[in-house]
Amino acid sequence: MRSLRRLLVTAALLLSSGTIAHATVGGVDHVGLTVTDLDASTRFFTETLGFTVRGGDESYPAVFLGNGEIIVTLWRANDPDKAVRFDRKNNVGLHHLAFRVPSFDALDALHARLETAPGVTIEFAPELNRGGPAKHMMIREPSGNRIEFIHRPPQTP
After folding, report:
1. Does any domain span residue 144?
2. Structural domains of the chain, count
């Protein structure tokens, strides 16, 4: 019994160290975004996209938001007036954050809502993604982070 336990512990250690198997990752747990206007970005995620506030850290300051599928943490830049805006073609980092939407109709309805959302800039309206069948759109939320919304219809066999 003792040697079996030792064998199992050794196997577990080898597995966890990657000697026998490589660790795999699952879906995205959360995404952290630095923002210049914490209040405006929080309102965008809650009022426009339906996220709820799950907590925060006033000392950072930060707000933690969730929608049942993903958590987004918003972290205010130390000096928002001097914050360097992201340039997707010249900066290393998050190019954009992409959210799935359940249907083409939902994508169109979201586009209509985003057209009147305060501080939102629409880069492009819903269009076919690389010829389809997926359709997507791209926006910038009030602090300038790029967000894509995409619907991929089920593939037929």
Report:
1. yes
2. 1
Report d(CA 150, CA 136) in Å as an integer.
4
State residue 149's pLDDT score.
96
Measured distance CA(44)–CA(39) in Å, rounded: 9
State how far the Cα of 141 lies from the Cα of 45, in Å rounded to an integer. Answer: 9
DSSP 142-155: TT--EEEEEE-PPP
User: Length of the chain, please?
Assistant: 157
Place of tokens 């009147």: 116
10: in domain: no
Element (H, E) at 50: none
With beta carbons less than 8 A apart as the criterion, state whether 136 and 150 touch: yes
- This prediction has a pTM of 0.79
DSSP label at residue 85: P
Distance CA 129, CA 152 (A): 9
Give tens-digit pLDDT for 80-105: 999 888 888 888 788 899 999 999 99
Q: What is the CATH number of the domain that holds 106?
A: 3.10.180.10
